Amino acid sequence: MMVIRRYALHFAWLVSFVAAGGSLYMSDILLWEPCKLCWFQRIFMYPMVILLGIAAYRNDRSVVRYALPLSIVGGLISTYHYMVQKIPAMANTSPCRSGIPCNTDYVDAYGWITIPLLAFVAFLFITILLLLARKHEPQE
């Protein structure tokens, strides 16, 4: 557990890097057009790649107060997006009135694993890792 706390910023950066890379792969290589809710999730994920990368390099744990709100809000958006996809009545509350509908499933593995769920898991891991990083006290 001590290793995870010591390198929590590095792990959080790695998760954000993979999540951002995955979203770019889906939109630029697979040519899957993101909906509005996908864009909002990206708005909260992409800055964390830079913030957490710099913080991990410098071992600057003060970044937690900036990155944690991004991760929590991004996770809430992912949760809402997943509900829009899986609960038919929620599709009426979606902000996607033009373009790609927010309830479109490009990925629907096993009937419950979708892109918003994957984004939620990434935001959740980052949140947990940031909370662990905040509590780490370096040994001298």
Automatic annotation (TrEMBL):
This is Disulfide oxidoreductase. Its main location: membrane. The chain crosses the membrane at residues 7-27, 39-57, 64-83, 109-133. It is found in: Membrane. It is a multi-pass membrane protein. Keywords: Chaperone, Disulfide bond, Electron transport, Membrane, Oxidoreductase, Redox-active center, Transmembrane, Transmembrane helix, Transport. It comes from Paenibacillus profundus. PANTHER family: DISULFIDE FORMATION PROTEIN-RELATED, SPBETA PROPHAGE-DERIVED DISULFIDE BOND FORMATION PROTEIN B. Belongs to the DsbB family. BdbC subfamily. Pfam families: DsbB.
